[in-house]
């Protein structure tokens, strides 16, 4: 049996085992691993050979205990069922990894109490920062972040006067931009299809932006499940004379589009449909979906950069507003007289 096999069978090898195998102190092993320039080449070679012989692998937890740094960030996300959050996490993890940080993720299902519970577990693990979605959270979440002294960043929202930094977009301004586009195409009676308002401050902000718009009197607000089926069901709740449907999610818009096609309702000739998100499929449905492009990848990049820069240099994290872009495609047409 090899030395490495013996160590694996008995227990996980430590730097003490490496030191015994190399004939040096465990302090010398630590220097060879963490500050190799402080030991001789011959010593580094002996330590490396002992690492191979013992099967030693570094213990990240032990290193964190010694250094006081976990190099880990926690992200609390409402769901992974929607591509918006998956895209954000993909970019966030890539950017943090490039800066030497790890990312741990917890799904909260939009439940604030569950979010607090998950955050406490992350903080107990030693995460150095927390990233959450939206502005609405239990006071206990923010108090725990303060108690542990870790930065808390709120995403998918921009509100510069908030107590914590926000990195995202102005949801009210974005919905107003969408309504401007429909009004410019002659639509005055417009159905607005949206997901549940409870637990989703982003949707509430988008609705508020629409209600403050000069064309608000012509809007019919329809709340439904945030799903393809929910978008399809909303078509049955249109009122006579409505010529356009503004969906506050591409998922809802595509559900509405699919049911219109199945019923022989021509889009956009009979009914214009507009989405919100610019998910990848929106480009490829027929007709291609007019929508708003949210800066999800940029949000991940900026959040990671701000968090990493703060933890490495102490630079304060500032709120950042990212632009929302109109993607004018084929599902919206000028209202027929």
From TrEMBL:
Transmembrane segments: none annotated. Signal peptide: none annotated. One of its GO terms (molecular function) is transcription cis-regulatory region binding. Residues 13-67 form the HTH lacI-type domain. Pfam families: LacI, Peripla_BP_1. The keyword DNA-binding applies. InterPro entries: HTH_LacI, Lambda_DNA-bd_dom_sf, Peripla_BP/Lac1_sug-bd_dom, Peripla_BP_I. Keywords: DNA-binding, Transcription, Transcription regulation. It comes from the Bacteria. PANTHER family: LACI-RELATED TRANSCRIPTIONAL REPRESSOR, TRANSCRIPTIONAL REGULATORY PROTEIN. This is Catabolite control protein A. It comes from Pontivivens insulae. The lineage of its organism: Bacteria, Pseudomonadati, Pseudomonadota, Alphaproteobacteria, Rhodobacterales.
